[in-house]
Amino acid sequence: MEKPAEGLPPEIWMHVLRHLSPTDRFSFRASCKYFKHLVDQGCLWRDWSVVLDFQRGAYNSRFWATLRRRRVTGVVMRGTKAKDWKQLALSLPSLTTVVMDQSSHASLDCIKDFTNLKRLAIRSSSTNILLDASTVHRPQQLTELSMCDVKFPPAGLGGFISALSHFTNLTSLVCHQIGIFEETISVIQSILNCLPELKHLSLSIVQRLFAFSNISGPKPGLRGGADTPVLSSLELIHFIDHSLPEDVMRLMPGLQTLAVFYTCSNRQTTQGSPSPDPHPMNTWLSNLPQLSTLVISKGPPLKKYVTSIPATVTDLTLCAAELSLEDMAAVAVQVPNLLHLHIDPWPLHRGAHTAQIPHLFPKLQSLKLRHEHVPEKDFLRLHRLQDLGYLEILDNGPQLSKLAGKLHALAENRLHVTTSPRRRDAFSCYCAGEVH
After folding, report:
1. CB of 199 closer than 8 Å to CB of 167
2. Other C-beta atoms within 10 Å of 159: how many?
3. Are 383 and 411 in contact (CB under 8 A)?
4. Closest among 249, 247, 244 to 221, alpha carbons compared
5. Which of 3, 163, 166 is nearest to 175 (CA)?
C-alpha cells in the first residue's frame, strides 16, 4: 500500500499524527511505507528525547539513520561503556541535550565528543566526578547543567564553585544530593556570584542545622549593575524550616518563580496554644514583588503565610495539609487574577471544596486536582469556569472516564480533560516529583 486514503493530503495525516501517542505513531509507521515516511518526519519529534541502553549490543546503521531523519537532538543514555558513548557521538553529531543516567569516569570523558552540547545532566555517579573546562567541547556553549546523586572530590564548596566557574553562560543549574555539606546560604551566594547569567537554580537542602545571622551588607543579587539579569526561578527540595535566613530573598529580588518542597508537614496540632511567631515564609514572600509562580509542597499550615502571598501570583500549586474552605477563600482574596491552580490537600485528599472553585477563582485557565471523595454534582460544577481550557485529574477511579465525558459535554467541548500528566522533559530531575 503506497498511499492510503486517496485524496487526503499528507498535511492532514501529519495533523492527525501530532495528536497521537508515540505508541500509536509506531503502529501507523508499521502499517506501510507511506506512513513510515510520514512518522519519521522531524516536525513530529521536536523536543523529544530517545532513551538508549545498549543492553542488546550496538544499534545498527538503520536505527541511527531513523533518528537522524527525526532530527533527534536529545538522548538519555543508560550505559557507561566508552565504546557505546563513542558510537553515539559519531552517529548523532547534532545532539544538544545529553542525560547520563549512570555516570562514570569513562562516560564523562566522552562528553567532549558532543560538539553541539548545550544541556548536560549527570546522574547516579558511583565514583567522584571531575568536572572542569575540559569536560565539554565548548564550556561557554553549555546553558543548562543538572547534577543529581553525584560525588565530587573532597575539596568542599571552593572546589565545587571553581568547577562551576568555567561554565559562565549557564542559565539553569540543578544540584541535588551532590555531597556538599556547607550551609545552604553560602552555596547560594557562591553560585550567584560565579554564574552571572543564571536564571534558574534548584538545590536540595542538606539536613544539617547551622547558626547564621541575617544577611548584612549591600544587597546582593544585582550582579554587574541594575541592568544585569538576576535569578528568576528558585527551587528548594528536601527543605526544612530555618534552613535559610529569614531575609534570604534579598539575594534574589527579581524572582518570578519560587518552589519549596518540604520534607514533611508542620501542622500545628495543639488546640488553643498561643500564636507562634510569624513564619519565615511571610518574610520571603513579602520580599518578592515580581513573583508570578508559587509552589509549596507540605510545610507549614497555609494560614501561617497566606496573607503574604503576592497579588502578582497567577500560577499556584499547593500540596498542603487539610486545606479548609477558609484557607481557600483567603487564597482567593490574595490572588484575584489566578489563572493556573494545582491543589492537592496532602495527605487526606478530601476534594479541596471543589464546588467552590468556580466562585473563588473565576479566571482559571488550567486546573489540577483530585476527584476522590467529591460528589459528582460538585465536580461537574467546574464547567462554570468559562475560561478553563485544561483540567488534569490526579487520581483514578472506575467511573472517571464517564465523569470526564459528562464534564466535557457540559463545557460544550471547550475543555480538555485528562488523567495523564503532560509530557515530562527527559532532562528534568525526578527529585522534586518524588517529594511532591
Report:
1. no
2. 14
3. yes
4. 249
5. 163
The pLDDT-based confidence of 347 (bands split at 50, 70, 90) is low
Which grid coordinates belong to 332? 482567593
Identity at 79, one-letter amino acid code: G
Location of C-alpha cell 525526578: 430
Q: Which of 171, 159, 91 is nearest to 128 (CA)?
A: 159
Average pLDDT over residues 19-48: 86
Report d(CA 197, CA 193) in Å as an integer: 10
Say whether pTM exceeds 0.90.
no
In Å, how far from its chain's centre is CA 14? Answer: 29
Q: Which three cell numbers stand for residue 180?
A: 556538599
Gap between the Cα atoms of 429 and 148, Å rounded: 7
Residues whose CB falls within 8 Å of the CB of residue 83, separated by 6 or more in sequence, listed in order: none
Q: How far is 14 from 105, CA to CA, in rounded Å?
A: 43
The answer on pLDDT for 210 being more than 50 is: no
Q: Which residue has 569516569 as its cell numbers?
A: 105
pLDDT one-digit tens code per residue, 213-236:
455 444 444 444 444 448 999 999
Pairwise CA distance, residues 403 & 371, whole Å: 10
Secondary structure (H, E, C), the chain? CCCCCCCCCHHHHHHHHHCCCHHHHHHHHHHCHHHHHHHCCHHHCCCCEEEECCCCCCCCHHHHHHHHHCCCCEEEECCCCHHHHHHHHHHCCCCCEEEECCECHHHHHCHHHCCCCCEEEEECECCECCCCCCCCCCHHHCCEEEEECCECCCCHHHHHHHHHCCCCCCCEEEEECCCCCCCHHHHHHHHHHHCCCCCEEEEECCCCCCCCCCCCCCCCCCCCCCCCCCCCEEEEEEECCCCCCCCHHHHCCCCCEEEEEEEEECCCCCCCCCCCCCCHHHHHHHCCCCCCEEEEEEECCHHHCHHHCCCCCCEEEEECCCCCHHHHHHHHHHCCCCCEEEECCCCCCCCCCHHHHHHHCCCCCEEEECCCCCCHHHHHHHHHCCCCCEEEECCCCCCHHHHHHHHHHHCCCCCEEECCCCCCCCCCCCHHHHHC
